[in-house]
Amino acid sequence: MKQSNLKFTNPIVTHLVFDINSQYDRESTAPIQNSFSVEISKSDDENEAIVQLSILIGKKEFTTEEPFCIDMTIGAKFKWDNVYDEKTLQELLSKNAPALLLGYARPIIANITDAGPIPAYHLPFYNFIDD
């Protein structure tokens, strides 16, 4: 196995809102909806980019089926050597970077939900390659 030339800083949470739905029907079996968006701010003069993953768990407009809503953004600065062509670099930043950031967000989300009146929510794994 070879170490990647793509490096990153420690991910940081830049936005986090956790709302509990007081109207939640505990008998509901509806799955919790998760959605993601990725923002890439690439430097024009250096081999670096800031990648931010926005995560929305549940719906901001509650019905009785959502136990909570989490709106979170986590990001990191990614750096690389001149070893990648533009297509490969775009794949790394738009697919690999968000998958890595999701791994850092997962335990934060589990800890936050575990502190509420519901069981801890463990965010499933997602394949960012299949849009």
Residues in β-strands, percent: 25-35%
Q: With helices defined by DSSP (H or I, 4 residues minimum), what is the helix count? A: 1
* Largest sheet entry: 5 strands, antiparallel
Number of strands: 5
User: What is the mean pLDDT?
Assistant: 92
CA distance, first residue to last residue: 28 Å
Q: What structural class should be given to the helix and strand makeup? A: alpha+beta
Q: Over the alpha carbons, how many angstroms does the gyration radius reach?
A: 17 Å
SSE string, helices as H and strands as E: EEEEEH
Low-confidence stretches: none
How much helicity do the residues have?
A: 10-25%
Overall geometry comes to elongated
What is this structure's SSE topology?
Elements: E1 7-8, E2 12-20, E3 34-42, E4 48-57, E5 68-79, H1 86-114
Antiparallel strand pairs: 1-5, 2-5, 3-4, 4-5
Walk me through this protein's architecture.
The protein is 22% helix and 32% strand. With 131 residues, it is of the alpha+beta class. β3 (34-42) and β4 form a beta hairpin. The relative contact order is 0.24.
Summarize this structure as a short list of keywords or feature phrases:
131 residues; 1 helix; alpha+beta; 32% strand; single chain
Task: Give a short synopsis of this structure.
The chain has one helix and five strands.
